[in-house]
Structure formats: structure tokens, C-alpha cells
Amino acid sequence: MAGTVLLIAGAPVGRGRLVDAAGVLPVLSAVPPGVLAGADSAHVVELADPLEPQAVLTRLRAAAAAPEALTVFVVGQLQLDRKQRLPHLALARTTPATARYTAFPWHWFREELRLRPPGSTTLLLDLHADAECWNHLRAQPLDSGHGHAVYGRIAPPPGRRTVAQPSYMKAIATLLRSGHRPPVGQLHQQALARIADEDGAAGVGLVLGTSAPAGFAGPDPHTALADAVRAGRHGDADALAARWEQTAVQTHGRGSDEALHWSEVRADLAMMAGDPERSCRTWMAVALARLAVGQSPDTPAVEAAVDRAHHQWGRIGDRARARQLGPALAELRGRVPGRRAGALDHVRRQLEQLQST
To answer: Domain 222-355 is classified in which CATH homologous superfamily?
Structure first.
């Protein structure tokens, strides 16, 4: 069994650099290619401090077209472009003012990898975000696409005049240099444990990746869900997610992060199935559950749940059903106004229009 490995390390040259991204590449390059890929052999492509986003896109597109398993290691820093406010991987020539033109848009990863078979792609990420992007990501998680195994961490910006080290990826490389690659979820947990010991819990940042609830036997679950959605088996996908949700409730409690994660997955599945009413109801339930366990109205996860409920409510085609849900959404919006000015007024205006017809 062969594999393909793409190593990308990107950060600005000069004062804008937050992390020594390329510094970890020699350590990764010392790992046998097959171990990097978790395969008998592998073709490795390395991009160190690339200059142009198109160069990264060309390499990514070629790697995505490979029929064998693909492992993508990404080390670097994230910035928002000033126009669309989308996360970008900063490259050598990137500045805050030029990110839209000189950095690599993160959604290109999603677009280029979206047609790969579910379960064939693994992303390992060690990213530092500047202050603006860090605040953005706490409310809107980084989207790397469905059907892929995504593990890693996103760290906040280091102190002034400090260049951070990609300690998560260095831990991954050190573990792999033993010549043995454990299952990627186990590898991820071992790396997190190492950096938590060295840097403390604060150094871990936002953790990417999930593990299966104890006692559940079945397929690495997001891959199976993506497979069912692609095949149009939306009922099967929701039933599988419901099983995971119930297991998480039994294991960790109804208000636990694990259980709420699977509620959020079911809300997304309803959206993908073209059922905005069910998606809206589920996102509202998630927000209420988070508030019930003591999370504040300005907690990013609470705000995000209400924002998504609001968005899905606006997509309900049946006016009677939208009118029925409107008062509950307006009440929730009153508790969680969110960061977009006028969101509550928008719900009230729409509800008035619905009630007048």
C-alpha cells in the first residue's frame, strides 16, 4: 500500500512572522516516508515558506488527485483577509493588508479535497493565529471539509516580538521518528499530552479532532456520515449521529461537550438533507442546552448556535412553520443578540411579515 504526503510550512518573512513554521520540516523530513503516510511507501512533497498561493494550490491539487491515501501536514499562521474576513494561511510575502492576494485561502483546502473518497485523507495541523483571526476562530471554527480526519491545534498569537515554535508538530515528528505510526487519533492524543506537559494547558490552544465515545464499535464516525450524505442516505446519517449522541449522553451527560457536539452534527445533517426547520430547531436546542449548563450568552459556541438557527429559520419555505418557530427564535435572540448588529430586529421584522399574511 502506497501513500502521498504533502508537507506545507508557511509564514511571513520579517516582523509579521508569528511562528517558525519551516523549522519543523527538517524533523519531519527525517521520518521515513512510509511512516509519515502510515503506508508501506509514500511520495513526499515539501513546500517550505512558499511565495505564491498559486504554487501551493498547484501542489495541493496534484496531491488531491492521487488515488492513494493522502496525508497533509500544515504548519504556519492564520490571518483574515480584510475584505471577506476569511481565514488564510499566511505565506512568505503576506502582510495584514495583502492577505487576500498573497496568502492561501483556507477554503481552498476544502474545495480541492472535497472529491476525495471519504476516509482517504488525513490533515495534521499546527497553526498559530494572529489576534484578529484568533477571535474569529473562537466563534467560527476552521472548516477543512467533510469526510476527512482532521487533527491538530490552533494556538493564540505569542507575545510581542516573540516567534513561537510549532510544538505540536514537533511532538508529532518526534513520535514518528521511532519508526512506528499509531492510529492517527492516538498519535494526536500523545502529541497533545507532550505539549501540555511542556507548555501547560494554555499552550495547547484550540484542539482539532475528536475521538470515539467509550464502548462504541463502528467506523473513525464522521467519515461514515460523510459517505452516507454523499450517497443521499440522509436518514441513515442522522440515525448514526443519533446513536453517537445517545452514547455521549450516557457516557458524559446531556450537557457535555461530547453530547452537544453530536447535536450540532445532527443540526448540520438536517441542513444538508434540505430540512431547515429541523436544523433550526436543533440549533436552538443546542443553544438552550449550553445556556442551561451555565455558558454565557456571549460564549462563541452559544452565539454560533443561535446564528445558525437564525440562518436556517430564514430558509424555511413553509410560511406557517416559519411563523410557528419565530417567537421562540425571537425570545432566544433576545437572550443571545450575537455580534451582528440588528439581528433581533431582523427576526422581529420577519416575524411581523409572516404574521400579517
So the answer is: Tetratricopeptide repeat domain (1.25.40.10)
Report, at the CATH architecture level, how domain 2-208 is classified: 3-Layer(aba) Sandwich (3.40)
CA distance 326 to 280: 10
- How many CA atoms lie less than 13 Å away from 12 in the CB half-sphere? 22
Mind listing the pLDDT tens digit for each residue in 152-192?
A: 999 888 887 788 899 999 999 999 988 888 888 888 888 88
Mean per-residue pLDDT for 318-337?
91
Q: Predicted confidence band at 202 (pLDDT cuts at 50, 70, 90)?
A: very low
Coil/strand/helix, residue 293: coil
Q: What is the per-residue pLDDT for 173?
A: 93
Which of residues 15 and 290 earns the better pLDDT score?
290
Q: Buried b vs exposed e over 190-215: b needs ≥16 C-beta within 10 Å? A: ebbebbeeebeeebbbbebbbeebee
DSSP, residue by residue, 214-273: TT--SSSSHHHHHHHHHTT-HHHHHHHHHHHHHHHHHHH-TTSHHHHHHHHHHHHHHHHT
> What is the secondary structure of 8-71 as a DSSP string?
EEE--SSTT--B-GGGGHHHHHTS-HHHHHTSSEEEEEEEES-S-HHHHHHHHHHHHT-SSEEE
Q: Which amino acid is at 245?
A: E
**Residue with C-alpha cell 435572540?**
333
Domain boundaries defined on the chain: 2-208, 222-355
The answer for 41, left when phi > 0, alpha when psi is -120 to 50, beta otherwise, is: beta
Sign of CA dihedral 162, 168, 171, 176: negative
321 confidence band (pLDDT: 50, 70, 90): very high
